[in-house]
Amino acid sequence: MTPDVIVVGAGIVGAACADALSMRGLRVTLIEQDGVGGGATAAGMGHLVVMDDSAAELALSAYSIRLWNQLVEAAPLRHEYSRCGTLWIAADEEEMAAAGAKAETLAGHGLACELLGAEALYACEPQLRAGLAGGLLVSGDALVYPPKSARILLDKALARGTTLLNGEVVAIEDHGVLLADGSRLQAAHVVLAAGSRSSVLLPQLPIQPKKGHVAITDRYPGFIRHQLVELGYIKSAHAASGDSVAFNLQPRPTGQILIGSSRQFGTDNLAVDPAMMTRMLAHATSFTPALGKMNLLRCWTGLRAASPDGLPLIGPSALRHGLWLATGHEGLGITTSLATAQLLAAQICGEPSAIPFQPYLPQRFERHGSTGMAAGHA
Question: Is residue 184's pLDDT more than 50?
Answer without folding.
Answer: yes
